[in-house]
Fold each of these.
Amino acid sequence: MNEISRRHQIVPLPDLRDWFDPFGMLEWRPKLDFHPIRVEDRFEEDGTYVLSAEMPGIDPEHDVELVVSEGTLTILAERSSEQHDKRHSEFRYGAFSRAVRLPANAKEEEITANYRGGILTVRVPVVLPPKAAARKINVAAEHHGAAGAEGPKTDGAKAKKS
């Protein structure tokens, strides 16, 4: 019978990160998400590209900036808060950004944005490519009745007529 055992590695010096952040306060972002702004995008039936970004607790008129350049939309935002008490005060600050590539036929000069309920919604009109007209293609039939005309070839040798 096998016995499972654990070995505890004894490390003479703690990890350097533990010296500067013993309580794990610096790791506030989710481990799997590298972008602090969650973005969802979709196309509507009329071809409009819609981008929604979750950005709760910010003032959209002062804390958000949208920049369009060379087919890329960049969302820049800053968030800050202060709390004052008799004995102490706290100040929090965070700046974050997210760049999203726009569709090829986006009308950059007609982009609009609004902020409601913590969600920034950006609407990008897109020029739809013209639909190709459908056309019917006729299929011509070949007739094999002329003397000396060969039919489809087969794997075996041609049978001789006597």
Note: The helical segments are 16-20, 60-63.
Amino acid sequence: MASRHHRPRRTTAVAALAAAALALPAVTACSQARAAADCGALAKDVQRDVGNLRRTIADDSKDPQSGQEFIDRINRDLGEVTRRTGADTDSDGESPVKDAIGEVTAAVDDIQDSVGDGERPDVTALSKAAGALTTACTKG
């Protein structure tokens, strides 16, 4: 009789371990899906801020500093994309999201250089880079 009581416990333990093993990939997949959704949402925020920056620069051509609020927002959103996707630009390995973040960062740097030089910045490269970020985020 002792063996009869022992088997159900072993069966229960094996079933619990099997369930945990099956759940782990689902949790990982869910986490990756959430990171992709966060990336996509933040990429749309960057796109919106680029559009606002473009309009601000066009509307107030006498003050190149007028778009700084949107530059700050873009930089903040890039930091969030990097953090949420694990696309740390200092780490080894390439990914489309990491590459796109680098493109947006370089374009923002160019705009800040133009503003610092008192010039009216060209937002074309930033618009293209923001589009590349949106594409990279949606492709995962």
Note: The mean pLDDT is 77.
